[in-house]
Amino acid sequence: MEEFKNESESFYREIRSIEIYKASDVKYINAFNGVFPDPKLALYKYRIVAESYSRGISTKTQNGNYFTDIDVSFPILDMSKSTYDKSHKYFNKKKFAIVLNSNTEKMLLGNDREKIKIEFIDNKKDDNSGNDEFTIAVSGDTIIKPQLQLL
């Protein structure tokens, strides 16, 4: 029998950034083997405010086959016209792979066969509250389990 130690860690894990790649730069076999893409190939890198980051990565089954369902989102606080225009141009497509970077590890999701969708959502309230933001929503699924690499 294998026994698992169920104790809290002596450190805090916190998201730091997300790197977005063209799915074609992340080959299926490399993702399967845990080979991460060269960070120089990243199209975009976002620094993330951990308090407002939402992460949903779960294992599901369909017809007896396991897959990983991805649902990640984070706010973009830069409300400039430039950010708005670029985000509409670059996103709202299903053609990406991502690497989530925390202070302790990084996780690879997506590849050239199983592309990840990234949506740009305008969440402006225009209510004089100061709570205006854009949202980047990342979604998709893959049969390859998320690959982790300790930092």
State the gist of this model:
The chain is mainly β and 151 residues long.
Overview of this structure, please?
The chain has two helices and nine strands. The protein is mainly β and 151 residues long. Strands 1, 2, 3, 4, 5, 6, 7, 8 and 9 form a nine-stranded antiparallel β-sheet that branches. Strand 3 and strand 4 (65-76) form a beta hairpin.
How would you classify the helix and strand content by structural class? mainly beta
> Beta-strand level of the residues, as a percent range?
over 45%
| Total beta-strand segments | 9
The whole-angstrom Rg is 17 Å
Oligomer type: single chain
Distance between the termini: 30 Å
Estimate the global geometry from the Cα principal axes. globular
Q: Which spans of ≥5 residues are poorly predicted at pLDDT below 50?
A: none
- Assign a percent range to the helix content: under 10%
Mean pLDDT: 93
Task: Please describe the structure with a list of short key phrases separated by commas or semicolons.
9-stranded antiparallel beta sheet; 2 helices; 151 residues; single chain
Secondary-structure map with pairings?
Layout: E1 15-22, H1 28-32, E2 44-47, E3 54-62, E4 65-76, H2 81-90, E5 93-102, E6 105-109, E7 116-122, E8 134-142, E9 147-150
